[in-house]
Every structure is written in structure tokens, then in C-alpha cells.
Amino acid sequence: MQSSHAVSAISVVFDEPNLIADTGLVPLVRLAERAGLPALVGDRLRIEGADSGAGANPAAKVMTLVAAMCAGADSIDDTDRLRHGAMDRLFGGVRAPSTLGTFLRAFTHGHNRQLHAVHRDFLARLARATPLLPGVDRVAFVDIDPTHRRVFGRAKQGAEVGRFKGVRTLHPIIATLSTPLARPVIAAVRLRRGKAADARGAGPFTAEALAATRQAGASGTVIVRADSQFYTADVVAACRRANARFSLTVRMNPHVAAAISAIDEDAWTAIRYPGAFVDPDTGELVSDAEVAETRYTAFTGRTKAERVTARLIVRRVRRLNAEVVAGQGELFTAWRYHPVFTDSPFEMLQAELQHRQHATIEQVIADGKGSALAHLPSGRFQANAAWLTLWAITHNLLRAAGSLAGSFHARATTATLRAHLVNVPARLARSARRPTLHLPDRWPWQHAFTDLFDAAHALPT
What is the pTM of this model? Predict the structure, then answer.
């Protein structure tokens, strides 16, 4: 590809009132309206007594923020992209960035709890209205993981130096919901201060994520997957109360080591993974391992009612010895062990494979950090907490749109959804008083866009 010979003679003028840059917002906003997002916000979110009318018409402000995030906004100022060209003839009620900033700064902890309820109900409505979560009534997985979002302003509330030395962060925790056939959507989010322990509030958070999962239609087997920081009695108790299963990585300790050493050598099953995985201890690519299981009683230091006996599934990987390569014989085989505490109803190898698929939540976190979570834009902690929840609503809306666009986009990343379906330029024209959007000729994803457009407009309100 190269520049045309005529490029040197081209001039640039921003003066066309009939163009829009993000045509995909037309079906996305219609989908959000058909699924009831404005009505949910109007019913649930009450910001009263705030200065400068910050609490007035919250539905319009939430819809503006969600639409801007769908288009790629990662700061409050970026929401101004909704006020260009012919956008005012396609959408009404678009609010200015200054108004949206005032709205977010008016949030308190109670208002964020109201917004969490909106997020849960909206996910349930999307799951009913679109093929967002195929198979959720049979098997569903809830993955929980914390992440850190670096911030640079010293005045940001809650920003502290925590796990990363010399780096100030805020510390969100995220729970996703997925099925063997569907990419993850976000069931629950919370924002915490930078120094908060990974498992802080994990029990109630797990319970809320499971409630959202059941509300979204998960009537069959639900398995909660998490890393070792969530191997706590509170998390397991929350799973048991919600009639859900758990699959939790376990750190090595003397009790776990004793249970593993009691496994008979003949009980180990050799497996070869079709795709190599990264060993978390060494960073090496591993494709061969052995798996075995035994019974194990966890939390023996707690009361008898809090102790749990379940399966301990252990994957062991041969520890590579550099001296063997140099010609020295190996005296005995050394292993690295990766135990998982679970009450999964699936057979051993399937349960172990499902647990390793917990890493799918990292794709959601990466999607967020590549879009709306590139920044937490306010100096107010509760404003950033609201921004985080609005990103979760946006993520679920984009996933629902992808499921309507076809099988490829149902599994694509949100960045791909924006590039193919949202950030599409168009010219608005009228003929016989009927508006028509003229999109680029030979657009590669024309059929997917058309499927989304038709489906979003055909959904019942």
C-alpha cells in the first residue's frame, strides 16, 4: 500500500454535517433500549440532593457513558466523540463531558450499590433477549480474579502502593460468567483501594456473583473457579449456600504435601496436552504432565462446621534438571505439584482441564485495560467505582451485540467488535422523509453488521 499521486494536493476540512464515525452505535443503543437499560436506571438509581443537578435524568447520562465506552472512550473527555457530525439527528439526550463528570462525582457507596443492581438486571435481560450465554442452563463457570490498575495522580482517593513496589494502584476484583460455548460476560465487579488484600470481601462478592449467575439463567451446574488467594472457608461457604461447586487452586503447605505424598504411584495418569501451557513456577512451556486425585479435608483450623472434605486433584510436572543435559545422570525424578481443591462432578481429567480454563478471565481484564479501563479517570473513589461498573455494563452489551452478529463475532474480543461493528463511518441522507445511513461500499463485515442491525431493531421491548 502506498499514497496516491494526488495526496500532495489534498486538503483537509472538517465541515461535513452529515457524517458520523460510529454507526454501530445505532443498533447498540437500540439493543440497550430494547433490553430496558434506561428504564432500569430510572427505576433503580436515585441521586438526590446533589449539587448542580447532578442527579437529574440519570438514564440519559448512563446511556451516554455506555455509548461512549462502546465506541472506545477511556476517559470522561472522550465522551465528546458523541457530539460530532449528524449524531444529534440520530440520538437525543447526549450529555456533555462536564455534565457526565459532575454526575460521576456525585456517586456514593449507596449509589454504586444501586448501579450494581442495574448491572445484574441488565445482564439477565440480555441473556433472555439474545444468544449471549448458550448452554447456561446446563453448565456455567464463574471465574473470580483481582487485578491492579496503575494510577498516577497522588490525589486519587484509594490509590496506594500495594503489591507492586513503587507503583500506585487501585485494585478491582472481577467475576465473569461463561459456558463451554460462550465467551465470558461480567457478573460482578468491585473497586478496592490499592493495598486491599486479594481476598478481601471475597465471600460476599462470590455470593453476589452467584446470585447474578442464577438470575442470568444458570439453572444447572455452576462451578466457581479461582486462584489460591481465594482458597478460603468464606468462598467455599458462599458456594455451598448458593448450591454451586468450587474449583480452587491450593498453595503447597505441609498438610497438602502430606496428602499428595500418600497418593500411590500407580494412581498417576500420564497426559499430553494438545496445546502447551505455561508452567506458573518456571515460565516454561509444558505439554506433558501426570494427574491424580485424593480426598482432602480443608480448613482444619476452623470449627468443625466450616471444615470441608472434597477432592484434591493434583497435576505434577517433571522438574527439568540442567545437570542432566550436561551429562550427569539423574539420581531421582523431581516434580512440581499443582493441587486443586474441588467438588466438581466431572471426572478427574475433565475437571483438571476445566480448572486451567479459568485463565479466560484474563482475556476480559485485558479487554478492559485496552478500552475503558485504560484509565480510572476521576479523583473520587466512588466515581471510579461507578466508571468500573459502567464498563461492565458496556462489556456485556458488546458481547450481546457480537452474539447477534454471528458466530465469529460471538467469540471475538471487544476490540474486534469495535473495529468491525461500531467504528464504521456513514453518511446520513434523507429520501421521502426517511433517513438512510450510507456505509462504506465493500465493507468486509457488511453481513455481520446487517445481522446485528436487523436483530436489534426486531427485538421486542
Answer: 0.93
